[in-house]
Specification:
- It is elongated and about 75 Å long.
- The protein has 17 helices and eleven strands.
- A hairpin with a 3-residue loop joins strand 1 and strand 2 (33-37).
- The termini are far apart.
- It has 432 residues and is of the alpha/beta class.
Length: 432
């Protein structure tokens, strides 16, 4: 490797950069030197220790000014960390706010330039990355990249019904499973489902909501997904539960929905994040065209508290390693886009604290099943998923993101056929 100790100017820069960081942590430089920086000892059981195993990591950080260098180095065994993963997330956010360019300290930058290069091959782009953003082919590829990790992996940390969206915690003692069941039922009640009605689920996932609505509200279900793994899972469930005459799931893009009013009610849970703002008009128009007069549409999705542009460390981490092409849009923009194509907004319900708790439950489950998950996808990828889940929880807790359920109906439906007070919405229609 050649490099023995850390150059003085870089050491001084690191001390200054983290002088006001609220938690003390240790940086180990390729086994030759340790540097403690920060204000106080961490409250965690183990102090946070960053192990930089190659000088090229420092060189790349200074030259690229991109903290995601640490993620690439981690995947290539040139960087590691010990301690609470939440401390690592906070540290990454701090590093993203610190400039490491030439304008800050020319001597440190020049010393970094003289360090050995990282012995890493260039990251290979996925084939879909060359296609147009939010095209049909690319949307299908990125959905499968995220959801087709493997059914067994998701089963380790989701609830038994495999619900991969925000749960609804009615009181602090509710379990994740109970909160997910409460969410499923609340959606059905908001949609005023009745026996014999047809329900379309756009981005139906593993089909849990549809099967719940069929079992408890007597509807006929139709689901679409872009995930081959989820389609296969749904087909198994339909056969096992004898639902062939009541539930149909297809591999279909929302843009390819029939352009005729076929469904009494339509729901979309955790799907709008895949759409992209430029496609909002066609997304909301396709749904509007598929809904029968007098019907209802419920859209459940993550929003951005401030306008996102894809440049933050959190956005880029998720986009590169976990959830490609995820677009979070402000609630106000979403409502305007819905109204433009002919929707009347009749209810908006904020769930931000619920998603923070859901994500922490998922991360705790994944941590508990760490060894089994590592056997399926490798321990480094499991750690990236833990960073994703816990970092997202922090994002909701700090109001960087929101989660809203929007209920809407056709603006052309002039006759009001809904309860006049909000409490009336939540009463269950008599089931089968």
């Amino acid at each position: 490797m050649g490099q023995k100790t850390l150059p003085d100017a870089i050491r001084n820069w690191l001390r200054a950069a983290f002088a006001q960081f609220p938690r003390q942590f240790c940086i180990d430089f390729w086994g030759q030197e340790q540097l403690w920086v920060g204000l106080t000892v961490s409250e965690s059981d183990l102090p946070l220790i960053l192990s930089i195993r190659h000088p090229g990591v420092i060189r790349a950080l200074f030259l690229s000014q991109d903290p995601l260098v640490l993620t690439e180095a981690y995947l290539h065994d040139c960087f590691d960390f010990e301690g609470r993963i939440e401390d690592a997330i906070v540290l990454g956010q701090h590093l993203a706010s610190v400039s490491v360019g030439r304008g800050q300290d020319l001597r440190a930058w020049l010393q970094a330039l003289r360090l050995p290069r990282l012995p890493l091959a260039l990251q290979m782009a996925q084939p879909w990355q060359w296609s147009r953003s939010h095209s049909r082919d690319r949307d299908r590829a990125v959905v499968q990249h995220h959801y087709d990790v493997g059914e067994a992996f998701y089963q380790l940390w989701l609830d038994p019904k495999m619900v991969y969206s925000c749960a609804y915690f009615e009181h602090p003692q509710v379990s994740l499973q109970q909160a997910q069941e409460a969410k499923l039922d609340l959606i059905c009640r908001k949609l005023k489902l009745s026996p014999g009605e047809s329900l379309l689920d756009i981005g139906c996932g593993w089909g849990t909501l549809l099967r719940w609505a069929i079992a408890h509200y007597g509807v006929k279900g139709y689901g679409i997904t872009l995930s081959q793994d989820q389609l296969t899972f749904n087909q198994r469930c339909i056969a096992a539960e004898g639902l062939e005459d009541r539930l149909q799931v297809e591999l279909r893009d929302y843009r390819d929905l029939p352009q005729e009013a076929m469904f009494d009610k339509i729901v979309s849970v955790g799907m709008i994040e895949h759409v992209g703002l430029k496609n909002y008009p066609v997304y909301f128009q396709r749904i509007l065209s598929a809904l029968k007069p007098g019907g209802l549409f419920l859209n459940h999705g993550i929003t951005a508290s401030d306008e996102w542009n894809g440049s933050s460390i959190g956005e880029r981490f998720i986009n590169r390693y976990i959830f490609p092409d995820g677009d979070l849009i402000q609630l106000s923009t979403t409502l305007v886009e819905m109204e433009k194509v002919g929707w009347e907004i009749v209810d908006v319900d904020g769930w931000r604290p619920h998603y923070a708790r859901t994500l922490r439950c998922w991360e705790a489950n994944l941590t508990q099943a760490f060894e089994q998950a590592s056997e399926l996808i490798g321990h480094k990828r499991v750690q990236l998923w833990r960073l994703y889940l816990l970092g997202s929880a922090i994002g909701f807790e700090e109001n960087q993101m929101g989660l809203y359920q929007i209920v809407a109906r056709r603006k052309a439906d002039l006759t009001w056929n809904l309860p006049h007070i909000r409490s009336g919405w939540l009463c269950k229609t008599l089931g089968p």
